[in-house]
């Protein structure tokens, strides 16, 4: 045989194998009902082909009596091994869990970095002996002591871990709706011990963000930062126009560090939720997911710029007596890495000594302005600064209020704003019934809820925690949240965050004017809003707004009425009711029916194959194999494939979280 003939035979065999593999791949996808990667199908088809060829070589090629029967069995074996390989692959490495080959090296690199960070965190956790224990919400001395110990240990772990973990802790310290007061107090003491990055590392990042040398933009630039944090640091600079600005520059490499730490935090939270009663009580995975989303927004200075713009616009929609100064920003110089805004000269409320130069009347005036600004932003505008602690409030050189740090800005729709006003009105009037109705307006109540018991609990809460002479503090939000959660209710952040902001500003008001009557001022504000709401002009405006909202429906109404009356007159009126109108419900039922059908068919064909394989009757294909035996082998293969299809469907639904 010539070399050319051998080469041609090899080429023909390869082409035939390739065509066969393509056919097998198409058949496999149809059998399993799911599109899969070419690499996975090729691998499964190759293993099936090898198994089939090996079987044929052993039992068919040299078998002159049973050759055709053995070839049929070999083809069935190819299909069975291919499907089994795909099912096993789905069990070990579900579709989509393995990155593409070009992503393997970066994935390995991230895995190594993650393991090193895990080891570091394990040493820190072991050092502070943080163990997952149940979180007790009762107010016994023993429970309060246990919570305080847990909180101090958690603070120490987060502080030593640094990076995103400190930022997550700092964000948690502003969420009394999620954690007990002991944790809020402990996490509020978190300090990020990060030295300023050197100018040699900052300068290239600044130039790259500006798209030119920074000297072309700034007339002067102090290369020593006057403020430094984990994400960025702030410099004092002057534009060529003579305007003094604050330039916030993100630390080089911090995004990769944040991504690594947030990935680890999510993995730890998932494990913590699954294996700890405390983690399950905290809903740790969902909580950390929300916190990491907030942190990633904080890393992108464009989000802060957008928040600043929203609050600047809000000042134009509030009364003059409620306006505060929002620094001007320079969007043409700002990017995701650099944020340039007006430099505010003055001192923050955290420096109490700066208030000594203000007389009592001025301090009272500023306190009233700050409270009015906060309440009007929440109730009237729906965009508010949600972190008004003393360090974020400045008294400028003209003795006017200004705000800093726009990383946390809340937004509310008109319905939420009205409900918040209802809660404040009920609080100032000490009306437990109105308070209960206003709180329930925020929530979706399930059908099996003991609503009468919940109403009694809320009324008792109003009487004991918010009655006459009680002190307003952050624990109020925490307590009402825990009360609602004890009834299995999901408390939206849109409900808790505005009240947390109001309580936070109450602390700043006390610093600004210790004699400030917070409750009286809030009562005065909501009373004016309630009176304004029933004035003829307000009622007319509300009716006009409702009419405008209903106008499209009103326009369609005559046509619909005409069609209905026409159908009634002609006896064609009827209605359709669909039990499975939602596509997801239909898909779920379809999948369950298909799985049960395949399972029944697998069982039936399996039983039939056993009966046929044990049969000694029927036309003989060889001295040892009858036609019925051959059908038995084929049905056995079909039964195996159908069983694997059922297993594959179960694994696929588990991967999608369908139970």
From TrEMBL:
Tell whether Transferase is among the UniProt keywords: yes
CDD domains from the entry?
ABC1_ADCK3-like
The record's annotation in PANTHER family points to: CHAPERONE-ACTIVITY OF BC1 COMPLEX CABC1 -RELATED (PTHR10566), PROTEIN ACTIVITY OF BC1 COMPLEX KINASE 7, CHLOROPLASTIC (PTHR10566:SF113)
Keywords, sorted A to Z: Kinase, Membrane, Transferase, Transmembrane, Transmembrane helix
According to the lineage, what is the superkingdom?
Bacteria
Recorded protein name is AarF/ABC1/UbiB kinase family protein
Query: What residue stretches are annotated with the Protein kinase domain?
Result: 220-598
């Amino acid at each position: 045989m010539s070399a050319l003939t051998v080469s041609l035979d090899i080429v023909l065999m390869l082409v035939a194998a390739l065509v066969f593999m393509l056919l097998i791949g198409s058949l496999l996808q149809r059998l399993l009902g799911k599109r899969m990667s070419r690499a996975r199908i090729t691998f499964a088809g190759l293993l099936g082909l090898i198994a089939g060829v090996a079987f044929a070589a052993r039992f068919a090629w040299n078998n002159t009596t049973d050759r055709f029967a053995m070839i049929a069995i070999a083809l069935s074996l190819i299909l069975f091994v291919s499907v089994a390989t795909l099912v096993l692959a789905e069990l070990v490495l579900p579709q989509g869990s393995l990155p593409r080959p070009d992503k393997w090296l970066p994935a390995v690199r991230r895995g190594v970095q993650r393991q090193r960070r895990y080891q570091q965190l394990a040493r820190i956790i072991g050092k502070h002996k943080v163990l997952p224990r149940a979180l007790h919400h009762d107010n016994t001395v023993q429970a309060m002591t246990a919570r305080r110990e847990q909180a101090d240990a958690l603070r120490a772990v987060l502080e030593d871990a640094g990076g995103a973990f400190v930022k997550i802790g700092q964000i948690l310290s502003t969420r009394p709706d999620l954690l007990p007061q002991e944790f809020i107090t402990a996490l509020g003491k978190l300090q990020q011990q990060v030295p300023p990055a050197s100018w040699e590392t900052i300068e290239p990042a600044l130039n790259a963000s500006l798209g030119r040398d920074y000297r072309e933009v700034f007339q002067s630039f102090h290369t020593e930062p006057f403020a430094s944090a984990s994400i960025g640091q702030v410099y004092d600079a002057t534009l060529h126009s003579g305007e003094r600005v604050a330039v916030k520059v993100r630390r080089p490499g911090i995004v990769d560090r944040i991504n690594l730490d947030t990935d680890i935090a999510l993995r730890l939270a998932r494990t913590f939720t699954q294996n700890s009663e405390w983690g399950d009580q905290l809903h740790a995975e969902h909580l950390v997911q929300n916190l990491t989303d907030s942190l990633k927004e904080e890393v992108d200075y464009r989000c802060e710029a957008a928040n600043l713009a929203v609050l600047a616009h809000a000042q134009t929609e509030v009364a003059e007596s409620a306006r505060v100064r929002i620094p001007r920003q320079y969007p043409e110089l700002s990017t995701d890495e650099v944020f340039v805004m007006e430099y505010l000269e003055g001192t923050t409320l955290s420096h109490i000594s700066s208030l000594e130069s203000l007389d009592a009347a001025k301090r009272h005036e500023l306190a009233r302005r700050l409270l009015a600004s906060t309440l009007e932003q929440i109730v009237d505008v729906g965009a508010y600064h949600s972190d008004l602690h003393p360090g974020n409030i400045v008294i400028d050189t003209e003795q006017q209020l200004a705000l800093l740090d726009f990383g946390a800005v809340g937004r509310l729709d008109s319905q939420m704003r009205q409900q918040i006003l209802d809660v404040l009105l009920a609080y100032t009037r000490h009306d437990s019934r109105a308070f209960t109705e206003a709180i329930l307006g925020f929530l979706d109540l399930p059908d099996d809820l003991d609503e009468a018991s919940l109403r009694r609990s809320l009324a008792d809460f109003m009487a004991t925690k918010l009655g006459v002479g009680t002190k307003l503090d952050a624990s109020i939000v925490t307590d009402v949240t825990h009360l609602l959660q004890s009834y299995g209710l999901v408390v939206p952040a849109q409900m808790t965050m505005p009240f947390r902001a109001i309580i936070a500003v109450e602390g700043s008001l006390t610093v600004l004017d210790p004699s400030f009557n917070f409750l009286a001022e809030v009562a005065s504000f909501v009373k004016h809003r309630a009176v304004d709401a029933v004035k003829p002009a307000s009622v007319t405006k509300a009716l006009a707004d409702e009419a405008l909202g209903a106008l499209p429906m009103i326009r369609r109404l005559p046509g619909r009425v005409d069609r209905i009356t026409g159908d009634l007159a002609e006896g064609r009126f009827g209605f359709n009711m669909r039990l499975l109108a939602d596509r997801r419900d239909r898909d779920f039922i379809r999948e369950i029916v298909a799985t049960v059908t395949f399972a029944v068919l697998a069982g039936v064909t399996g039983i039939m194959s056993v009966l046929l394989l044990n049969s000694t009757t029927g036309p003989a294909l060889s001295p040892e194999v009858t036609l019925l035996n051959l059908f038995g082998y084929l049905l056995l293969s079909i039964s195996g494939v159908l069983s694997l299809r059922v297993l594959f469907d179960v694994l696929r639904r588990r991967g999608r979280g369908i139970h």
